[in-house]
What we know:
The protein is 36% helix and 27% strand. The chain is α/β, with parallel strands linked by helices and 246 residues long. Helix 3 (103-109) runs parallel beside helix 7 (147-159) and helix 7 (147-159) packs parallel to helix 8 (177-194). The model has no long low-confidence stretch (mean pLDDT 93).
Amino acid sequence: MDNKHASLTVKGLSAGYGAIQVLSEVSLDADSGQTTLLLGTNGNGKSTVIRCIMGMLPANRGTITANIDGNEIDLLGLSTQEIVELGIVLVPEGRRLFPQSTVEENLLLGAFPRHARAARSANLEVCYSIFGRLAERRRQVVSTMSGGEQQMVALGRALMSSPRLLIIDEPSVGLAPILVTRTMETIAKLKASLGLTVLMAEQSFHQASRIADAGYVLVHGKIELEACTRTALNNSDLIRRLYFGA
Length: 246
């Protein structure tokens, strides 16, 4: 998993479902080698942004551009498979695993992109070195595992795709606080050890802000805060109002 430059730029993105407009002029950057946080409570449009990036929902207006090793690539109009082939990989909300398959079967399903097939064995070893528990339980059926262990499988499956830019949607959903902490620590470890660029949508500010390099707050489909550093994010008056009641 040799990761060089991979970044993402969204400008003036508007999108919705039928007559319902969810996003209005959303702009954000996920800089190379950083973890960028997209904060917002449920219903404010985080997953809609991700669906547009991944080619799962057409945009009404705006641009979505990836920069992969200096090559500017317009993502609008590309299929989800074409976007994944570029190394832009999603860990979906709710994990979306195959519950009656084993850990290893789920992991190997992540190696379907053409560029990842040749590295399947090497990537599997990387997954098992990072997630030791999965190595121990590679033959275990996923439905019998805890929520935290299933989240490890979801992250590992994404790594099997040889990602350049990892998009993670609501990794804290359904997890106890201690497991959320461990999941965030794992994401930070992945970014640091594999040189990944990470865009993470999350509603749990207290946990996610510990590993963020920059962040945005989405309110009613609009970006209400752009923080270029973790300090700026933590010191924001908007964050204090939304999460601390100040």
